[in-house]
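Batch job 17 of 40 flagged for manual review because the log was empty.
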Amino acid sequence: MNRVLFADGSILHWINGSRRVVGVALIAILVVSMVFPSTVHAQFGLLGGIQNIINIINGAIRSALNAIGAVSRAIEALHQEIVWPVQLINQARNTIASLVAQFRGLLQSIDAAPVISATLLVPASLEVIIRNHQTNDFPNLTQSYYRAFGALPAADEADPMARNMIDIDDGLALNTLKTLKTTDRSGDLILESGDQIEDEARVAAPGSAPFLTAAAMAANIQSQAMMQRMLAAMLRQEAARIAHENAVRKRHGILSVKVRQGISDVLRRP
């Protein structure tokens, strides 16, 4: 006999098993009463006790089970209509799916629009490397940069101050280009995270919205950090431009002094 009790309705299996046991007991009592007539009255007393048990099962226990079922249905209705309304949840999911279908492909096509404009072989090769959103080809970037803009002059081809200016300008330019490539790669990862959050929002279970919100906030913080990195690179480049202009003025001053000194030396000759 199955004695496991559950409030969700499986107690009926126990009741049905109990009734079968009671039926078998009644048959056994009838047989015993036929074989042993002297004990018939005692068996009738036992029969009355079993009937009382059946009445209890059909009465109080059934009422309790009905009350439990009513409470369970009320809680389920509360969850479906007030706490997590199914209709509104499905409406939100459909809205998300509609927005994704409407804008994701369009945004991806805009992001992938071809903007490469160089026509000559060497500049075009450099532009391809700059725009490939990869961070594992920095040596290729350096080589292509020097092929496009020229290498550092040798010591006997330019004065030390000019060589220093050329070297720092090249270094800062390459620094900015590498930062740009890492930023492009970070942007791709953030976009992938956004797509994943959108996909999860379409199938997320009720109550998981705070987790998706936290993921979106983390992606937003990463995006802000990427923008700050680009802003810092721009500020460095601007500072380098101002320093370069000042260095040019200083170099002109030094050359002017040398020219005046040379003219004075020529005029002093007999």
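Reviewer: the log was empty due to a logging misconfiguration, but the result itself is present. The longest helix spans residues 209-268. Unflagging and moving on to job 18.
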